[in-house]
Write a structure and sequence with these properties.
about 130 residues, D-Maltodextrin-Binding Protein, domain 2, five-stranded mixed beta sheet, two-stranded antiparallel ribbon, 5 helices, about 45% helix
Length: about 130
């Protein structure tokens, strides 16, 4: 029983907040989790009429999948394989945190997530 309690406590502390970020030049003021899921599944490409380009972060990808997309990474992979096979769409590019920081500086349409501190405008924090 003690082992189970310790496991629960460690699990709670290992999941850090995820910040959804974009360029300070992006006019987007906020975003909902539902909108994020649709953007990352490429069902929509605008939020409140503002075009966004989603980029996955190698750090925190699994947690983002579970909290936002509501799928396991394996389920999301299957989703993308089906979409690619149909010729419909490609998954978001997956980059490291430092590469994302550069992309955000280069293109104000980029939207991503991080568990680390990055320069950019935070749209929402997911716990």
């Amino acid at each position: 029983m003690r082992v189970f309690a310790i496991y629960i406590i460690l699990t709670i502390f290992t999941f850090a907040d995820i910040a959804i970020i974009t360029s300070p030049k992006n006019p987007l003021k906020g975003v909902t989790i539902e909108e994020l899921a649709k953007v990352y599944l490429k069902k929509i490409d605008t939020i409140n009429g503002i075009k966004v380009i989603p980029i996955d972060n190698k750090d925190g990808y699994n947690e983002f999948c579970k909290k936002v997309i509501k799928k396991t990474p394996k389920q999301l992979h299957a989703y993308w394989m089906k979409e690619i096979y149909r010729g419909n769409k490609q998954p978001p590019e997956r980059l490291s945190t430092s590469q994302i920081e550069k992309k955000i500086k280069q293109n104000p349409k980029v939207i991503s997530y991080t568990k680390n501190k990055l320069t950019g405008k935070i749209l929402i924090t997911i716990r």
